[in-house]
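User: For a reading group we're discussing how well predicted structures match intuition. Take Metallo-beta-lactamase domain-containing protein. Before you show the prediction, I'll give you the sequence so everyone sees exactly what went in.
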Amino acid sequence: MDPSTQLKGIVVTHGHADHAGGARYFQQKFKVPVFVGLNDETMFSTGKNEPLCPVGFIANTRHQQDESATYTGSTADVLVEDVLDLKATTGIDAKVRRLPGHTRGSVIVTAGDVVLVGDLFRGSVIGTGAETHFFMCDVEGNRRDVMKLLSEVTADTFFVGHFGPVTRASVQQHFGLH
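Assistant: Thanks. Here is the predicted 3D structure of Metallo-beta-lactamase domain-containing protein, as structure tokens, for the group to look at:
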């Protein structure tokens, strides 16, 4: 891939440092638009994470380090308020949909039968199953978001922000949605 001719845009799934930190570089170097979910624009512009809510042992051991992570912020070219069709601005047949939960402005991307879920859930550290993300302030709300997603898409594979990918069956099993 030649980024100078093939990169059409950057979708930031949410404003945390481990997902948004490189966006400014690509935005400036390749002059492509950056898409950020509404309500994550402050994190994205300041480069500072909002407070994280650890879920489980691993998250508790990393909480301070991850919450204090920073990056050089930037300005979003496009704020995603609800659903945005990327075809008009990038030529890519995909949709970005705001699905707050992990952060107030989290988004997911659907392109055909491919779904990029950011940190809506994650893959297992060991094995291939789906897991609740390390940091989630509203675990029950997250479960509702996952239920909603599964009712709206037919994808069998989900690409997550950490580990994975994971299968639909493993997501259903983890979240008790059989």
